[in-house]
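retry 2 of 3: previous attempt timed out while embedding phosphoric acid mono(formamide)ester. Reduced batch size to 1 and resubmitted. Inputs unchanged:
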Amino acid sequence: MDNFNYYFDNIHLLGIQGMNKKTIQSILERAQYFNQKKKNRKNKILKDSLVINLFFENSTRTKASFEIAAKSMSADILNISVSSSSIKKGETLIDTAATLNAMHPDFLILRHPNSGAAEMLSKHVECSIINAGDGRHEHPTQALLDAAVIKEEGINLEGLKIAICGDILNSRVARSNIYLLTTMGAQVSVIGPPTLIPKDIERMGVKVFFDLNSGLKSSDIIMILRLQNERMDGSETPSKREYYSFFGINENNLKLAKKNALVMHPGPMNRGVEIASLLADNNEISLVKKQVEMGVSVRIACLEMLKLSRNKLLK
Ligand code: CP
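retry 2 succeeded.
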């Protein structure tokens, strides 16, 4: 196996904010390397390591892909079921993490509804914390896998015109992608109703469009986001049908973007709300399946990088 020249000096992966171009580039290249070996990627990088998945919110893609990644790296993995754990008896997040930490895991992969939960935990444990999504804050491995898929399509991130459409306000995926894509030199636009766009989002270096037609114009890629009802109070959109008529992406309104424009969606998708079913299933245009596939490769690359970084920093 080739050596991994990583440029990262932390034992935790908490977000994309502050990550430089060289670090991002190295993770994307390593993920592409593992993606090419996907039929034969069993390795011993995490032999004798213990990985714990601690998910306080539902997940299919992230949780499964971390488990598959860890197993393919020969780690032992434990999935904590929050619904049958002592969290239900009132144990706090810190006490739960301290309890698990006392069993000496090497990695604790955390998904939590509160923004900042991963960073807070990182101050209380010795193991590496990987943020698998914290509230509206960040979902770093999602942004890395999205960028790796774009690169795998042979598309340069520098100068890429990418529009992120939908519920930007409640989306950690949007935030991590904006940090990553702007760092890599892409031109990022956000499209959505004013109720779903944070007031000061221009400060993140993006253009704002409240109208789909102008937002899609000259975009190379449209990243479509789900309405995150679990973080809404119900006043943000009048109805799903009305939302679809103004902001839903289908094969017809996609013609407003550049010829051969591609669409992405981090999943889970709500068909007929933010994306038309026909478009979601059109693998000539939709990168959704490739995003899921790359999820495993990116998580292998991130686990390897943290293992190497831990070995160097803690020796
Ligand atoms: N994209 C994503 O985080 O999906 P899951 O919620 O299924 O993990």
